Amino acid sequence: MKLNPFSKKYNGYYDSVKTKFDGLERQLESKQRELADVRGEYDKATERYNRIIESGGRYSLNATPESSRQHTLVSALSNQMRPLRSQTESIIGQQKPLLRIIQAPADFSKAHAELCELTGQQKQLHERLQKNDTSIDKIAKRIASVQEKLTEQTRAAAAQFIDSDEEFVVPPALVKLETELKLAQASMADLQGQRQLISDELDPLPRKISEAKDCFKFARSVM
């Protein structure tokens, strides 16, 4: 997989798109300033018109010359804003496909980094899981061995107990085996808990990696 598609051909194309985008951005800023100025005048004119109406009685049917002039001004400013809004939206619409191309290098780098991070995380978790499973197998064999010895020692101790006429003392070897078994079982429970935690971290990674690959391929296709 080629991870660095920034060829000279693409760089030239990118520069031409960036130049066009920057030109549209300057047009957009100019139109937005113009629209903001007209909107400011419109807001002031509308406020003055409302004050004139309020002073003459809001429900009065008789328009004064002053209110008529102010209404004409408000309508004119509203008409000025309409094409400015349309022009602003048109410029933004022209920028959208260009913006996707301009953002492609950053999107590509981000998608590549995310994909590498996820695959690296998956690899580390698989290694931890393998190490954990090796320890589980080792402890399982240890438990089986101790249980076998414990069974033999228990039988021997039981026979001694039957034959003993005095106070019976539990053989140290039997106590040692019982303690070893408890430790081994506790270790097994801990390892199994760790395994579950690792599995929980691994479970969503295939889906995330698949999504990251799609983002990576899409970002590269734009370029």
- Largest sheet features: none
**Radius of gyration of CA atoms, rounded to a whole number:** 40 Å
Unreliable stretches (pLDDT < 50, length at least 5) are: 1-6
Number of strands: 0
Characterise this structure:
With 223 residues, the chain is mostly helical. It is 88% helix and 0% strand. It is built from five helices and no strands. The chain has helices at residues 8-56, 65-102, 104-163, 172-202, 205-222. It starts with 7 loop residues before the first helix and ends with a helix. Mean pLDDT is 88; it is low at 1-6.
Entry summary:
With 223 residues, the protein is mainly α. The chain contains five helices and no strands.
Task: Set out the fold topology.
Elements: H1 8-56, H2 65-102, H3 104-163, H4 172-202, H5 205-222
Keywords:
single chain; 223 residues; mainly alpha; disordered N terminus
